[in-house]
Amino acid sequence: MDKKTGLKLSATEFLIASALLLLSIGLFSFIADEIVIENKNSFDFRIFRWFAHYTSASNTKIALFFTFFGSPYFMIPAYLVIMFYFSKQQKKKEAIMIGVVALISVLSIFLLKDIFHRHRPPSPLIPGVNGYSFPSGHSLSGFTFSGIMIYLIFKSNIQYYRKWIYAALLFLFAVLIGMSRIYLRVHFPSDVIAGLLVTTVWLSLTFIAILNVEKSQLKR
Which helix (H) or strand (E) is 5 found in, with range? Predict the structure, then answer.
């Protein structure tokens, strides 16, 4: 790729990332104000009523299976393995980037939960779930992990159509984690959507920073 083509591509990606960033901030602000602060839960409870039609012992087992992948019990080992792999490949910058993105996403969960103090939904299907509800930490973790993996896949040399297939599967994986939290009634649907939006904000900012570094390198 020549410098001119690289700069054009970088400019397009920058515009897309910036648009996603602004859109996500706007939607998150709307949800935080209209649903969480104003306590307008009609949307959330409509979704809960829909999920209630599919409540069963077998579906609960499936939901518990997917919800595990958004927990620290999966995320911490998964990140450590990926970071170790890139370190062994002499790609320490990538390893550090992954660690920083993951760490800040976790810190943002605690910060936002402490700001909004939203209580969890009534009548959860599983016991022992504590802490505040908004945004969903499992969803944010799942979308962040999938976003990082999608980025790494698109930076790899695998066939282009395979990149889109893997990206779709990873996004579906994160969606299923979020849906499991709604089904189990440990998070409101708006909590899960907010988790996706916070992830989009953070990953967009990270991607814009990476683009700026790459752009400066292309100009040299």
Answer: helix 3-30
